[in-house]
Amino acid sequence: MSLNPIRFFADVLHLASILILLLKLRAGKSCSGISLKTQELYAIVFICRYLDLPYNYDSPYLFLMKLFFLSTSIAIVYYMRGPLKFTYDAEQDSFRVIFLIAPCAVLALIFNMAFTPFEILWTFSIYLEAVAILPQLFLLQRTGEVSNINSHYIFCLGAYRTLYLLNWIWRYFSEDGRTQWIVWLAGIVQTAIYCDFFYYFIQSKYYNKKMELPK
User: Mind telling me which residue stretches traverse the membrane in this protein (predicted)?
Assistant: First the structure.
């Protein structure tokens, strides 16, 4: 495992985003403004990516990180579908996720590192993670206003992915030109999707006002 300062800080931001969301769900007893469809997509991402968890013990760090993301993604879906379902606005969360899942599945079958079940599912998870945030952003645009805790959750999630781009550059120059073009292209697409959100988030902090997205 290659763990450099950029990757470590990116992982910290990823952990922070999940903890912020869990804090909202558990302490706030509400999932308002949170897209269940995005959370279900993330659950699919981690299930497909970490099928090797029971037998592929790379390192204590990676094992614990994989276990954390897999378990928390399932727990978040459980809370939103179970104890907190009365606070979930299904009418606003209306993004058609089939338009994300189907293209990602087709791409994974065509463009992958090896045509094996595990590699195809892993590649599918990479493609799907790149666009999984779209239902969440679509929900926020429909409602307009973004609560403080929701904005920080999404900002940490986007910042983690942005730092991973720097991590790949670091690894390219420090690991003899290591390349993973599928991961890189998906990461660039994912970061680009966050750019509009970053603009309004930074603007809201600069002017010290509640964040709003154009409808």
Answer: 61-82, 94-114, 120-140, 152-170, 182-202
Least confident of 29-33, 164-168, 176-180: 176-180
Split into its structural domains, the chain has a count of 1
Domain region containing 151: 7-203
Residues 119 and 141: their CA atoms lie apart, in Å, by: 35
Domain presence at residue 209: no
CB 71 within 8 A of CB 42: no
Report if residue 210 sits inside a domain. Answer: no
Beta-bridge partner residues of 212: 145
Q: What is the mean pLDDT of residues 43-57?
A: 89
- Taking the C-alpha atoms of 166, 155, 101 and 36 in order, what is their torsion angle to the nearest 10 degrees? 150
Provide the token pair at 115: 């045509």
Q: What is the largest CA-CA distance in the chain?
A: 53
Q: Is residue 1 assigned to a domain? A: no
Residue 91 placed within a domain: yes
- Cα separation of 120 and 37, whole Å? 22
- Cβ–Cβ < 8 Å for 29, 84: yes
Rounded mean pLDDT, 25-51: 94
Q: What is the pLDDT of residues 71-116, one digit of tens each?
A: 999 999 999 999 999 999 999 999 999 999 999 999 999 999 899 9
The 3-state secondary structure of 33-72 reads CCCHHHHHHHHHHHHHHCCCCCCCCCCHHHHHHHHHHHHH
User: pTM of this prediction?
Assistant: 0.93
